[in-house]
Amino acid sequence: MKEKINKIREELEEFKITSGEKLEEYRIKFLGSKGKVKALFSDLKSIPAENKKEFGQLLNGLRQLAQDKLDSAKESMSGNNGKNDQLDLSRPGDQIPIGSRHPLSLVRSEIIEIFNRIGYTVSEGPEIEDDWHNFSALNFPPEHPARDMQDTFFIAKGDKVEEQISLRTHTSSVQVRVMENEKPPIRTISPGRVYRNEAISARAHCFFHQVEGLYIDKDVSFADLKQTLLYFAKEMFGENTQIRLRPSYFPFTEPSAEVDVSCTICNSEGCNVCKYTGWLEILGCGMVDPNVLESSGIDSKTYSGFAFGMGIERIAQLKYRVNDLRLYSENDIRFLKQFTPGM
Ligand code: DAH
């Protein structure tokens, strides 16, 4: 009997509990109703009465040892100090719900990818900007209405215009920073958040997002600009998309244009989104004004270039039919969930 007890003790000490399955195997093998320890207890019946006490004690010790090993293995597996003895190791794991990317991030990435394919890098600049980068270097005369309080959030209003610090009102400020720091050829896009002092409504917000594009090299022409924008429109909205350019004005480009794409919603047949014109405005663009090149240290006799700027919200609105700008920043789960991959 003693030998048997020692053998089983050795056996259970050697048993390695490395998984939930092993744990159960161990329990059945030693402590189950048909297990080895139980079997020894039945053997006790055949032990002479005078030895019963001694063997009884030895057996109880063995059972305790087996139980302690089981308990400590359970404890270390549950990782919660054994407080939860209801742990069911055979339960399937909980699914971890994956979130969804914000529609504006999706569109931002798509724009970056489209321009990456034709050699554009990504550059960024600060959201708190000085007057030089947001206005002066971009050829805004001091009395230009865009500097007015109603459009710009000022952080520090110095006595002189040049001392003013504001939240950038457009990503065109990054153009200036890139031109100051890099030598042509320059081919870059600058996505980022911009701010304007506007009342919040379905059609206007005090912050939104833009992507600025800039291409500077020798002999860059307006035809290059048109072809680049046509490529972009087709990649973004589909092969059949067309563009049209309307003359416009921006202080930093000359000539300037506003660009429309053929209405993707009604195939240019006329709907309330395109206001029955068949066209949707998506961006502003133009040839970089020589004054702007010179302000940033680029020789306008050797180099020319084009720039464009578009609103990410606007592109997302057309792609996903979002008709209220406020939805983008309200964090309503019902809205955001619709952009979960595979839904
Ligand atoms: N900065 C302009 C805006 O915020 C957009 C823009 C228009 C950017 C024409 C450009 C451009 O680079 O050439 O409305």
Written description of the protein model:
Helix content is 37%, strand content 20%. The protein contains eleven helices and ten strands. Helix 1 packs parallel to helix 4, helix 2 packs antiparallel against helix 4 and helix 5 packs across helix 10. The model has no long low-confidence stretch (mean pLDDT 91). The site of 3,4-dihydroxyphenylalanine (DAH) has 11 residues, from strand 9 and strand 10.
How is this structure best summarized?
With 343 residues, the chain is α+β, with helices and mostly antiparallel strands. It has 11 helices and 10 strands.
Largest sheet: 7 strands, mixed
Count the domains: 2
Taking the alpha carbons of the first and last residues, their distance comes to: 67 Å
Strand order of the largest sheet: 1-5-6-10-9-8-7
